[in-house]
Specification:
By secondary structure, this protein is α+β, with helices and mostly antiparallel strands. It has two domains: 284 residues, PAS domain (Beta-Lactamase, 2-Layer Sandwich); 230 residues, PPM-type phosphatase domain (Phosphatase 2c, domain 1, 4-Layer Sandwich). It is built from 13 helices and 26 strands. Strands 1, 2, 3, 4, 5, 6, 7, 8 and 9 form a nine-stranded antiparallel β-sheet that branches. Strands 11-10-16-15-14 form a five-stranded antiparallel β-sheet. β7 and β8 form a beta hairpin. The two termini are 84 Å apart.
């Protein structure tokens, strides 16, 4: 019923309204597509611009931080050297302020440079006043009952007159910076704390100082950086879109710096502590921090620069987080957030303009469509009437070929010509049909014959490949043979990617010498399998004649393979490595994949074979490239050989199995037998690739010294 209804409706369509509708829909579709493409292009441009802006801002902040926090450690090294040479009188505070004064003059971002003694906690330093940034000398020792005294300095850095005295004693040994340097036994940073002198949140770089012998601790030198003042000014001056912001947090989530004026500490006096970013009054900081925690679980899991997106009240926010670490213990995160709305205002305006243009274009299209339709319909109706008559069998039809449109006149003349040709065509059509029917029958018979031959050929080739595969499997070492090898626990595995593979391995024993070889022919299939069989035969022959010299062994094998490859007119070659084992020692020669040497405790060593030979079959003389190495195996040690089909395999999501994963699996299961190690690798390999088809042959040989 639905089909009948649709047919009835569409049968009543008229050409005029249809043409107007088509024109209108084309304009709407074109403008809509253009508007959408423009909008999406703008969004992509915004994403790219935002990404570049966040990356540049993060890099600038990182450079500023690195510059900001490198200076304190440089000053500490200078002061420690002066302290150990006696150029700073930290204990009695009789001299040394000029040395500190010059450093403070050339380092305006430093708030305090000082040294503390390990004897009784004496202290000497120069502090920058937080109110007027005037430099003052401060010291505390036995003469001052360890209360810190403050002195004005002249232009040369020499003390002039007394300013004030601290209201409580000071022991340098009890301060966080002193403890941090001793705990680290070297350069260190403290956590953020409230400075004794300024009452501001502070971070200190400290360095232990030893006497000239380097054995006795004489004190610690430190340099203070006041966090919220200098660096916040830098962050506020950054151009982060219109409403974007940047902030820095430590690995515990405490705010280190912020581009807003929000206080970074909560509480006062001794109870003051760092404000957590997740408790910030700024919604952008709070939401960005919570998003990072939701994504990573903890800030310590963020080890690389990441660009992310999150939403605040339905508005997309662009976020970049960049780890900032130095060699002395700083472990912070730089976070930059930019609202998408900062970039999208112009795009929204463009979208509105596009909509207005679409409405204007729509009105023009409707008007033009009505006019053009009136001129086109008349001649087309004449063609329709004549065509209907021809469909009824009356081929003697002619239409008027004089209209306002050249194309319609051409169509009319073509129609008149076609009417005459159709009559002659129908007369010849039946004859042609009969001829074509006979030809098709003949062609069909030929196709049937060819299909029969093709099936027979496929059966023959399948049988040949099956025979080749069986022969290949027959010459591989049997499990019973491997069990009879004295002194070694051996397990081997080989699986071709096709019916016939190009991988090869063999284990031979004669007169107390065990020869193990593994190779990989380029490509796979019947030709590669044939070259593998040649290699196996040649290796066995050389072993039977007791050829032990690696150069002679590989040279003879290469010449045999090279001459056969040339006779076959083939471009195949293979990598091959040969191991000779006797009395707990293995001699290795030939070029192949890296050899894995497993020690009894599961430690894996990788042996590169690039300098031990060349691929066989490339050149008939490779003697100058052949070399060998000798390895001693203790009980429980072993060697693992493999072909590149294992580490270079990919799973369904384009991840590579990798040599590192192979080493890890071997190490985890090395305590088992060779067969158990082999089976663990093959099981892990199959789990990794899943349903993915193998792209290359895989071979694995595990040898373990008993």
């Amino acid at each position: 019923m639905l089909n009948l209804f649709l047919k009835a409706k569409f049968a009543k369509l008229r050409l005029g309204p249809t043409l107007v509708s088509v024109f209108t829909l084309q304009v709407v579709a074109a403008v809509g597509v253009m508007g959408y493409v423009s909008f999406r292009g703008g969004q992509r441009a915004v994403n790219e611009l935002s990404s570049q802006l966040r990356t540049e801002l993060s890099a600038r902040i990182e450079r500023e931080l690195r510059t900001y926090f490198e200076v304190p450690h440089q000053l500490n090294r200078l002061n420690a050297a002066a302290f150990s040479r006696g150029e700073l009188d930290v204990v009695d505070a009789q001299y040394g302020e000029a040395h500190f004064y010059q450093q403070m003059k050339i380092a305006p971002n430093v708030a305090f440079v000082f040294c503390g003694s390990a004897q009784r906690g004496e202290f000497l330093g120069i502090v920058r006043s937080p109110e007027d940034r005037i430099l003052e000398l401060t010291f505390g020792n036995r003469a001052t009952s360890f209360f810190r005294e403050y002195y004005q300095l002249d232009v040369n850095g020499q003390r002039t007159y007394h300013i004030r005295r601290a209201d409580r004693p000071y022991d340098a040994r009890q301060r966080p910076w002193f403890a941090a340097a001793l705990a680290n036994d070297g350069p260190a940073w403290t956590d953020v704390y409230i400075a004794f002198s300024t009452g501001l949140p502070n971070i200190t770089a400290s360095l232990p100082v030893y006497d000239l012998s380097g054995r006795q601790l004489i004190g610690v030198c430190g340099t203070d950086v006041v966090l919220p003042e200098e660096f916040r000014t830098f962050l506020q001056e950054l151009d982060i879109g219109q409403t974007g912001q940047a902030f820095v947090i430590d690995h515990k989530g405490a705010l280190i710096a912020n581009s807003t004026d929000e206080p970074l500490m909560k509480g006062e006096g001794d109870t003051a502590e760092s404000l957590l970013a997740s408790e910030s009054q700024d919604e952008g900081v709070r939401q960005a921090t919570q998003y990072l925690l939701d994504q990573y679980g903890s800030f310590e899991q963020i080890n690389t620069a990441e660009q992310l997106e999150f939403y605040i009240q339905g508005q997309r926010q662009f976020l970049q987080v960049l780890p900032f670490r130095d060699d002395f213990g700083l472990d912070w995160l730089i976070v930059v957030t930019v609202p998408e709305a900062d970039f999208m205002a112009q795009i929204y305006a463009t979208t509105r303009n596009t909509a207005m243009l679409a409405l204007i274009s729509l009105a023009i299209a409707i008007t033009g469509g009505v006019l053009v339709t009136r001129w086109i319909i008349g001649p087309i109706l004449n063609l329709t009437t004549a065509s209907d008559a021809m469909a009824q069998g009356n081929l003697a039809q002619q239409v008027n070929a004089d209209s306002r449109f050249r194309e319609l006149d051409t169509l009319a003349r073509a129609f008149n010509s076609m009417a005459g040709q159709l009559k002659a065509f129908f007369a010849r059509l039946e004859e042609k049909v009969q001829e074509r029917t006979a030809e098709l029958a003949d062609a069909n018979q030929k196709i049937v014959t060819l299909n029969t031959k093709l099936k027979a050929e496929n059966l023959r080739m399948g049988a040949e490949l099956d025979v080749a595969r069986q022969i290949q499997q027959m010459i591989l070492p049997k499990t019973e043979e491997l069990r009879q090898v004295e002194g070694l626990d051996i397990a081997g595995f080989m699986e071709p990617a096709e019916e016939v593979g190009g991988d090869y391995y063999d284990v031979l024993q004669r007169d107390g010498v065990i020869t193990v070889s593994i190779g990989d022919v380029t490509g796979h299939g019947l030709e590669s399998g044939l070259l593998m069989l040649m290699t196996q035969t040649a290796v066995r022959t050389l072993q039977e004649v007791q050829e032990q010299n690696p150069v002679t062994f590989l040279d003879a094998l290469n010449r045999t393979i090279c001459h056969n490859v040339q006779r076959m007119n083939s471009e195949k070659n293979l990598t091959l490595v040969v191991l000779s084992h006797a009395q707990g020692q293995i001699r290795i020669s030939g070029q192949h994949e890296e050899i894995l040497l497993a020690r009894s405790d599961g430690t894996i060593e990788r042996i590169d074979t690039m300098d031990l030979g060349l691929p066989l079959g490339l050149d008939d003389d490779i003697t100058e490239f052949i070399d060998d190495i000798l390895i001693h195996l203790e009980p429980g040690d072993g060697v693992i050989l493999y072909t590149d089909g294992i580490p270079e395999a990919y799973n369904a999501i384009e991840e590579q199995y990798s040599l590192e994963r192979l080493c890890r699996v071997i190490s985890e299961h090395w305590s088992g037998s060779a067969e158990q190690v082999k089976q663990a690798v093959i099981t892990d390999f199959r789990d990794f690739i899943g349903a993915q088809k193998m792209a290359d042959d895989i071979t694995l040989v595990v040898l373990k010294q008993q």
